[in-house]
UniProtKB/TrEMBL annotation:
Pfam families the UniProt entry points to: FCD, GntR
Keyword Methyltransferase: no
Protein name: GntR family transcriptional regulator
Gene name in the database record: pdhR
Alphabetized SUPFAM superfamilies for the sequence: GntR ligand-binding domain-like, Winged helix' DNA-binding domain
Domain HTH gntR-type stretches: 22-92
Taxonomic lineage of the native organism: Bacteria, Bacillati, Actinomycetota, Actinomycetes, Mycobacteriales
Amino acid sequence: MAAPLGGLTALGAMLSPLDGVGPRPDAIVARISAAIGMGVMSDGEQLPSEVALATQLGVSTMTLRDALAVLRQRGLVETRRGRGGGSFVRAAEDALMAESRTRLRALSIQDLRDLGDEHLAVSGAAALLATQRAVAADITRLRTLAQRLADSDDRVPARRADARFQIEIAVCAQSARLTRAEVNLQAELSGLKWLPQMSLTPADEGQRHHVLVDAIEAEDEETARRLAETHSSATLRALIALRMGRSP
């Protein structure tokens, strides 16, 4: 079961209605792909029934079936027939990386800038509020996640630990809206950030997160906000360079 996030769950936020979120089948594919990549949906986990999942997402069953067909084609979902059948998650690393590469190619430079601008605002505000509202248990949880990232031995667990850390900052801010926004942003950004071409190392990213936790624990509002915004801006610049065919 997904852990609570400021009154939400990660799965609940990612399977919330898609009102106003682009072409519906594409949006469903993006949401479920991200949930798998972030570890919110585990390998082998059964998806809700088509009727239940369509209701959660606020779409027709036909639209959902179109999205599931794409997910099957990309190797992220398999459908089993007969007794005990249904749609099940396949979280193979090569399929997750291929999905992220497809996602990056589909985004324009302006799309990336818009995503980056939103994340800059959300991450900075969440970090600042976390300095005011985080309690000792929050700090412990953040340090555990930062170390989990630093200790990751490949990109899939690193992506999951990194995304979870970013979301937990918003949880520490005690804002359901910021938490929901960060969940949705990580759904779009985390897979792109951890593409092999981005040249990130889990150890370096984990250390950056530890420094941010230090600022939050010290209740240093300006430093926490600056660190979060600087990291967000650096990620955006690297993604734009990669999208333009340059080395990040």
